[in-house]
Write a structure and sequence with these properties.
The protein is mainly β and 169 residues long. It is built from two helices and eleven strands, in the order ββαβαββββββββ. The protein has a three-stranded antiparallel sheet with strand order 3-11-4, with no helix packed on it. Strands 1-2 form a two-stranded antiparallel ribbon. A hairpin with an 8-residue loop joins strand 1 and strand 2. It is elongated and about 110 Å long. The protein starts with a strand and ends with a strand.
Length: 169
């Protein structure tokens, strides 16, 4: 019922229609415009700008996390992506800490070995007051030993596996 006005391109003629008769002013079977707008009145479709918006959200050097193995290029439609940090935990950058600076530094180990060692000490008969009440007991002479013969030990905290991609171009 309301009279609507449209302009197509740089046409001088203005077209008017009554919106009560039609759902839209223009119906097309092909894109009206598939490049950047020339001025603020140009028509853009969401499909035409989605890649530009996503590329701005994921600049080169960005990381994309997913639980599907599909390369982000196939999902987002742009960029060169490589998988990174396979089998590694992620940790935040920390200035002047050789373990966590520079960015993309790696380190750590999944397991480590404990050296095998035996230690011992001999003791003489000694009087010991266990509770400071004047009552003493005698500790006999002997050898106390401690043997550590450990193999490689895993120190993995609980984890959740995902795909990690980095945009390189």
């Amino acid at each position: 019922m309301a009279l609507q006005t449209i302009r197509i391109g740089s046409a001088v003629d203005v077209f008017q229609y009554d919106d009560a008769d039609f759902d839209s002013a223009i119906e097309v079977t092909a894109p009206i415009k598939s490049t950047a707008p020339i001025d603020g009145n140009d028509v853009l479709r969401l499909e035409d700008i989605a890649t530009t918006v996503l590329a701005a959200a994921f600049p080169i050097g960005s990381v994309y996390l997913a639980i599907v193995a599909t390369n982000p290029n196939a999902l987002l439609g742009f960029g060169t992506w490589v998988r990174i940090a396979e089998g590694q935990f992620l940790v935040g950058f920390k200035t002047a800490d050789g373990d966590f600076d520079p960015v993309e530094n790696t380190g750590g180990a999944k397991t480590h070995d404990h050296p095998s060692a035996t230690s011992g000490a001999s003791s003489a008969n000694t009087m010991v007051d266990n509770n400071a009440d004047g009552t003493t007991i005698s500790v006999a002479t002997g050898m106390a030993t401690h043997d550590t013969d450990l193999a490689a030990i895993s120190h993995l905290p609980p984890f959740y596996v995902i795909y990690i991609w980095k945009r390189t171009a």
